[in-house]
Amino acid sequence: MLSSIVATVLALTARQAAADNFPGLYVGGAIGQGRISDGVNSASYAPYAGTGPGEFKENHSAFKGLIGIRPISLVGAELEYVDLGHADGTLFAQPAAASMKGAAAFGMLYLPVPIIDVYLKAGAARLQSRLNAVVPFLYPPPLCAICAFPRFEQDRTNTGFAAGGGMQYKFGALAVRAEYERFTAAGEHPNLVSLGLTWSF
Length: 201
Fold this sequence. Notes:
CATH topology: Porin
Largest sheet: 8 strands, antiparallel, barrel
CATH architecture: Beta Barrel
Radius of gyration: 23 Å
Order of helices and strands: HEEEEEEEE
Number of helices: 1
Number of strands: 8
Distance between the termini: 38 Å
Strand order of the largest sheet: 1-2-3-4-5-6-7-8
């Protein structure tokens, strides 16, 4: 009798766990901090015959939206739109600004960990970056001491490898997740640390 009760409880628990681990289709969003990282070279200001390379790196508030599917317990897939923000900083010791946003697709691998979901993700991202800065080698303007520094704008769209990982805890159809993602774009490695929510259908 006792063994039958125990077996029934275990079966119901396993059935509930299976239901929790197969959310099917879900949507969500997240906010966090993005690291905008953009590289620049002489081609961006070729009309001025420059040669110096440079690198822009700044943190900024960021957000993303996503849609995903988890057809089986261990494997899933996600599509997301990510906006790493528009950050002000410096390049070549002069004021500069950069923005970065785009879309990404990931394959998801869920590890067999109890209570919470721990997962790894890998795929590709197509990010658009815009960098506005001062031409580095014309300090100060050679012919006019009061003239404004000449500026250049660099726009690029890059498709590259993306990867990350995170963990989530489910409350029925709702899940809270913390995540880290790293991208390859603009000759650098921008990233995003975020906290978000998903809702399963």
